[in-house]
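User: Design a sequence. Structure:
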């Protein structure tokens, strides 16, 4: 059982959940967040698009592990590596976003234009470093390409390519489950959870 303070329709309410942890690890993306990510991918299809995820986290009972992320919005950031296989935030730009949205940054997204459909070894190292060593409970969303005309068409028609999304979180406990995949939940349209 989890007692969680949760943000719903602009009001902070308390909820009690009876679920097991495995079923509970979810990254939920609002309609608005999806649209901003897709627009970003179509705009720079040849390089890794990247940015931060804004929203709220819920924790397990002990407060050690994050279990659910509600992503309300995203902020695309420059990929200063300008590479199809690597991304790097511009530190000054990231700092600016952190100052504007500090408590609301709950994760990072980036794209794999080559279509590589899982976390790279660099991704895994980053996740472990941030989630476990630095104890920052961010979630990690990867969208897999190619971001060609077919992809753009699917987005335009509202046929959201949810299968192209994979998400991760590295549990922070030293003897915990380690890197875990998250279920990605896509809101159908704005305001509907
Ligand atoms: Zn990656």
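Assistant: Done.
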């Amino acid at each position: 059982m989890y007692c969680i303070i949760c943000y719903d329709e602009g009001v902070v309410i308390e909820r009690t959940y009876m679920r097991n942890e495995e079923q509970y690890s979810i990254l939920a993306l609002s309609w608005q967040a999806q649209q901003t990510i897709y627009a970003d991918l179509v705009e720079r299809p040849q390089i890794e698009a990247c940015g931060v995820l804004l929203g709220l986290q819920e924790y397990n009972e002990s407060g050690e592990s994050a279990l659910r992320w509600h992503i309300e919005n995203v902020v695309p950031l420059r990929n200063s590596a300008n590479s199809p296989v690597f991304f790097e935030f511009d530190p000054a730009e990231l700092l600016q976003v952190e100052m504007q949205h500090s408590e609301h940054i709950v994760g990072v997204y980036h794209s794999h234009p080559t279509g590589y459909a899982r976390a790279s070894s660099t991704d895994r190292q980053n996740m472990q470093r941030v989630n476990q060593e630095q104890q920052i409970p961010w979630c990690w969303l990867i969208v897999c390409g190619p971001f060609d005309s077919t992809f753009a068409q699917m987005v335009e028609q509202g046929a959201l390519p949810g299968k192209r999304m994979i998400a991760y979180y590295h549990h922070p406990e030293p003897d915990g489950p380690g890197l875990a995949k998250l279920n990605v939940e896509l809101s159908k349209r704005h305001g509907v959870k």
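The helical segments are 21-24, 31-43, 91-101, 121-133, 149-156. Strands lie at 2-8, 11-17, 26-29, 50-59, 66-77, 105-112, 139-144, 165-170, 179-186.
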